[in-house]
Amino acid sequence: MTASGTATRKRDLIDRVAACNTWVVGRFASTVEFYAQYREPYLPEFFRAVAERLGLDGHEALLDVGCGPGLLAIGFAPFVKQCTGLDPEPGMIEAAKEAAAQAQAQVAFQLGRIEDFATSESFDIITIGRALHWLDRPVALAVLEKIVSAKGWVLICRPTSVETPNTPWVKPYQKLCHSWSEDPERKRYRVNTDEWFAGSRFRAVEQILVTATRHVTIDDLVGRAFSRSTTSRAFMGDRQAEFAAEIRKVLEPFAHHGQLEEEIVANAAVFGFAASTPESIAAGAA
Ligand SMILES: C[S@@+](CC[C@H](N)C(=O)[O-])C[C@H]1O[C@@H](n2cnc3c(N)ncnc32)[C@H](O)[C@@H]1O
User: Fold this and answer.
1) How many domains is the chain partitioned into structurally?
2) Is 284 domain-assigned?
3) How much is the mean pLDDT over the chain?
4) What residue's CA is closest to ligand 1, atom 4?
5) Atom 13 of ligand 1 has which residue's CA nearest to it?
6) 170-180 and 240-251 are packed helices; what angle lies between their axes, rounded to 10 degrees?
7) Ligand 1 center–CA 87 separation, angstroms
8) Which is the closest atom of ligand 1 to the Cα of 68?
9) pTM to 2 decimals?
């Protein structure tokens, strides 16, 4: 494709996103193959800590909204009775089904948006990971208010790669990725969860924060950049190789034997109908 063809395609995508205050199906289509493998993971420590803190006893029904390739649904499945993943992107649902089969996790996946989710069921836990900013807030809130059980919780989840003295590569890497993405909607990714739930029946209950470290390679971080809709292969077009080379140049000085240490802080912001903590609910005070 020519440079002007790429620019036109990029402008088209920006226009489509800017013109739409909800999700554009297809936006993640070219990132599916990179997403589950390279995006900041929810590590096993996160699922264990959240399950313990909320006192999950294997009787709960969980719905993962905007499940993508199923990371949260698959991670929580062993802790609950019934687990459903919902996503409007067919490629994501396919990837999620494959991942669940590989992990031997019992999860039912459903194609669709939360705003159109029609069910008479209620859910004890609803997880929304890295997807809140795509939802049509008033419509999604009304659906959530209907389908969360009386003592249930909505968990807004996000794992973040944080800069520490052992992970000095994080900021230069992020700065480079931002400089290559021209998404006019970038600000929308920083949703204030308290503001999102303001005026609804939901109250903030607590934040569950779980920190874990691991190692990644430079290739992993190139893959992560392509897993983001703002720097996806489709978005980069014929600049993909140049972008990947720039990432390598920035990261190489920080790598030891091809590895970089990464610290992941995973956050679950918990919301419920009363500002009751898991202890007060267990004590019957809710
Ligand atoms: C960044 S991915 C998050 C995947 C996964 N939850 C995670 O934490 O890794 C965002 C997902 O939200 C989905 N999504 C966008 N709008 C949605 C909507 N209105 N209802 C449900 N899911 C939606 C997209 O298809 C995409 O798979």
Assistant:
1) 1
2) no
3) 87
4) 68
5) 66
6) 160
7) 6
8) 27
9) 0.85
